[in-house]
Design a protein that fits this description.
By secondary structure, the chain is an alpha+beta fold. Helices cover about 40% and strands about 20% of the residues. The protein has 2 domains: about 160 residues, Jelly Rolls (Sandwich), CATH 2.60.120; about 90 residues, Homeodomain-like (Arc Repressor Mutant, subunit A). Helix 7 crosses helix 8 and helix 9 packs across helix 11. It is globular. It comes from Pedobacter cryoconitis.
């Protein structure tokens, strides 16, 4: 049976799978609070790899690229429940509670919570909506988001510097960012936004730094990495082509032969 995702209401997502399921690259535009009900999520992002074990609660920061692999539990089921903490709800909460953030959060990428009965019971309270025993309404979604915010701040007050930071992404070092994120198969528009630039500004700065276009650079960078993995690590293309941002294996083989004049087996 294939893994699937079911949206219960606007900002609550329940993901379930019965076999290992490789997710696609995702751009995370809003903060997400998630609970691993069963199984395990392996998340790959610019700061490294994160494993979310069963019963763990994690805060996923906005404005980043993430790729996931979902592993069912020994009982054969993967379940992950998440709620999106959208900017509008966070702005309203900050306004009502007179919250002002004066500095950015400087903590680590892995934003796990200490074992917390309140947070676990919060997610358990959402079960009736997953099972469709109760009807979820927009008003209820607003109330559940406010409850989630309260519980997050109660668990770690410093997280206010994450939740209520409404500043636009600042211009990031383009060379460093692209070398960390080139393997994500996302649009040039997404790369522009993540580096704090307009599309035209991104393309202009990219040409200055790399001397070529983003699409051409991404293709060359991915193929060079593939050549290294095949020649020096003896890896098979089928094992890594998705991880390098190629959409399908046949396109990868064609591009590789076009660039190097050799097939992967000849390398």
């Amino acid at each position: 049976m294939e893994g699937h995702r079911e949206i219960i209401f606007d900002r609550l997502v329940y993901s379930c799978a019965f076999e290992m399921h490789r997710g696609y690259e995702e751009f995370i535009p809003e903060h997400i609070l998630g609970f691993q009900l069963s199984g395990e999520t392996h998340a790959f992002h610019a700061a490294g790899n994160t494993i979310i074990p069963e019963n763990a609660i994690v805060l996923v920061r906005k404005n980043q690229l993430v790729r996931t692999i979902k592993y069912p539990s020994k009982l054969g089921k993967y379940q992950f429940l998440s709620i999106t903490l959208d900017k509008e709800a966070l702005r309203q909460y900050a306004l009502e509670n007179k919250i002002i953030v004066e500095k950015r959060y400087e903590g680590k990428q892995k934003l796990f919570f200490e074992p917390n009965d309140f947070l676990q019971n919060y997610f358990i309270s959402l079960a009736p909506y997953i099972n469709k025993k109760k009807e979820a309404t927009p008003r209820l979604a607003d109330l559940k988001i406010r409850e989630a915010i309260e519980l997050i701040l109660q668990s770690n007050p410093d997280f206010k510097n994450i939740l209520f930071d409404f500043s636009e992404p600042y211009k990031m070092d383009l060379e460093e960012f692209m070398n960390q994120n080139y393997m994500f198969n996302v649009s040039v528009e997404s790369f522009a936004r993540l580096t704090g630039r307009s599309l035209s500004g991104f393309k202009r700065d990219f040409t200055k730094v790399f001397g070529t276009t983003p699409k051409q650079w991404l293709r060359e960078k991915r193929l060079d990495e593939a050549h290294y993995l095949i020649k020096h690590k003896q890896q098979k293309p089928a094992d890594f082509y998705l991880d390098l941002g190629f959409e399908n294996l046949s396109h990868f083989y064609f591009s590789f032969k076009q660039k190097f004049g050799l097939t992967t087996s000849e390398v």
